[in-house]
Amino acid sequence: MSRRRTLGPKKKIALLLSAVTVAGGGAFVMASTSNASQAPTTKSAADSTVCQGLATALGNNQKFIEGQRTNPDAQSEARIANREAVIAQIELQQKASGCTVGESAQDSQPAQPEQPAQPQQPAPEEQAGGGDAAQNPGGGAAASGEQVCNGSTITLSGEDGAPAASSNQFPAGTRLKVTNLDNNKSTTVEVTGVSGSCALLNNAAFEQVREPGKFLIRRALIEKVG
Fold first, then answer.
1. Which CATH superfamily is domain 49-106+145-224 in?
2. CB under 8 Å to 36, separation ≥6 — which residues?
3. How far apart are CA 105 and CA 114, in angstroms?
4. In angstroms, rounded to a whole number, what is the distance separating the alpha carbons of residues 174 and 222?
5. d(CA 221, CA 226)
6. 221 - beta bridge partners?
7. Are 59 and 197 in contact (CB under 8 A)?
8. pLDDT at 6
9. How confident is the model at residue 177 (pLDDT cuts 50, 70, 90)?
10. Is the Cα torsion angle 156, 160, 162, 166 positive or negative in sign?
């Protein structure tokens, strides 16, 4: 005659508590996983070309404001208010693009005095007497601008208005030709203000040379043409 083994009250309570603990732990893990999957993810400048371009634009504007506060003049207050509005717009673009809002990166060159143009040396074929390669079909010398800002990337200031540029090297009125070597689009604009970059395009000018969805031009040719 077999006997059934029965559990005492203490063992029953212990087993019940263990089951509740396991179930609760599983629910906690599931809830944590669900919350993690729902948490929005943001990209940094290192993760996205778009975010890098916006961070650079933000940094350039912040640097400009810092310079105005360090060396103010009669127009500094108005300039700072304008750039603060630009920064607010850039932060909206960062949010819409899934970037870290407020992330700033300065991708500018220190201000340097403008150097006089150096006389160009004739090409080897010209030295040998064969100058046809340097002539245009009309018989005159081919026109070209002076290449400047070597190695600079190009981004936008966030400012509206007609196509224009700002610079920390060239005075207002200087004409710059900017070519995006990735799509061969170019625009010639006039410098109208000061920024933290060798050449910084406003929204309209940047639209003329940008690639869709990009806020940074890594391969740019910048020429001073006037």
1. RlpA-like domain (2.40.40.10)
2. none
3. 25
4. 12
5. 16
6. 179
7. no
8. 58
9. very high
10. negative
